[in-house]
TrEMBL record:
It comes from the Eukaryota. Homodimer. Transmembrane segments: none annotated. This is Acidic amino acid decarboxylase gadl1. Gene3D superfamilies: 3.90.1150.170, Type I PLP-dependent aspartate aminotransferase-like (Major domain). The keyword Cell membrane does not apply. It comes from Ameca splendens. The gene is GADL1_2. Its cofactor is pyridoxal 5'-phosphate. The keyword Lyase applies. Belongs to the group II decarboxylase family. Keywords: Decarboxylase, Lyase, Pyridoxal phosphate.
Length: 171
């Protein structure tokens, strides 16, 4: 397809091939900026609507919520940060009970690689939430959550971790 050849970024972290549905219907990698509209205009419009101080408060709040999520991940059994977050992107693994006592070896990571796609499928089919996953280099699939909504609160983030555990505890 001409559009795909012209616009394809090949961003494997956005367009995973191991989804439970036919990925040929994913149109994001066939359009400019994954079908996003001009980002600068959206930012300018929001800036004009809420002002500089409110934008600053929203960034501070997003960072506080991301920090909270990272702290909760560190506290909860079965969750592990991929890397200490530097902004609002939180990357983490969910390790189901069946894998928690498996020694750190290639077999563990091979099994763990299959966990995020199954949990994501269950999220989508239940309609509870939708969080992306990806692999990076030789790292197994992990969840990648961006905490930026000004409406997100601690209860929402607790729900995310509780729901992931609920959807994946039998794996």
């Amino acid at each position: 397809c001409l559009l795909q050849r012209c616009h394809c970024a090949g961003a494997t972290y956005l367009f995973q091939q191991d989804k439970f549905y036919d990925v040929s219907y994913d149109t994001g990698d066939k359009s400019v900026q994954c079908s996003r509209k001009p980002d600068a205009f959206k930012f300018w419009l929001m800036w004009k609507a809420v002002g500089t101080k409110e934008l600053g408060r929203r960034v501070d709040r997003a960072l506080a919520m991301a920090k909270y999520l990272a702290q909760e991940i560190k506290k909860r059994e079965g969750f592990r940060l991929v890397i200490e977050p530097e902004f609002a992107n939180i990357c983490f693994w969910y390790i189901p009970p069946s894998l928690r006592n498996v020694p750190d070896c290639p077999e563990l990571w091979k099994k763990l690689h299959a966990v995020a796609p199954v949990v994501k499928e269950r999220m989508m089919k239940s309609g509870s939430m939708m969080i992306g996953y990806q692999k990076h280099g030789d790292k197994a699939n992990f969840f990648r959550m961006v905490v930026i909504s000004p409406q997100v609160n601690r209860q929402d983030l607790d729900f995310v971790l509780d729901e992931i555990h609920s959807l994946g505890k039998d794996l």
